[in-house]
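Example 3.2
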Amino acid sequence: MKVKEFEKRLQQIADNSRIHVEKEEKDNFRVRSHDSKGIQLEPSYAGTVRVYIGEKLLFSLIPPQKDGVSCWYVDLDADITAIIANGLDVYISMLRAANEFMKEQFESDTNR
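Structure, written as tokens:
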């Protein structure tokens, strides 16, 4: 599954509620937070896929071999930290789609 296909699937699940997906093309740093104490940066790895609703990060999919982890994983450290009860089914369905995406990516990486 390509990133654009994954994005379309998430949009269908979430009823097109401004879902968009971005993929990091190279290793970089991104702003984690900024406040009166300054800016906090975090590493951002090539291949990382981020899922947003509007401008808010919902979750990230981190590829293997990053941070010493040898498999794809979901990073739930996001801008949205609470989901209303009615939205929980949608969120869980989106995570299921993310799981399918990660499995396909892993299989694709393994077959190279």
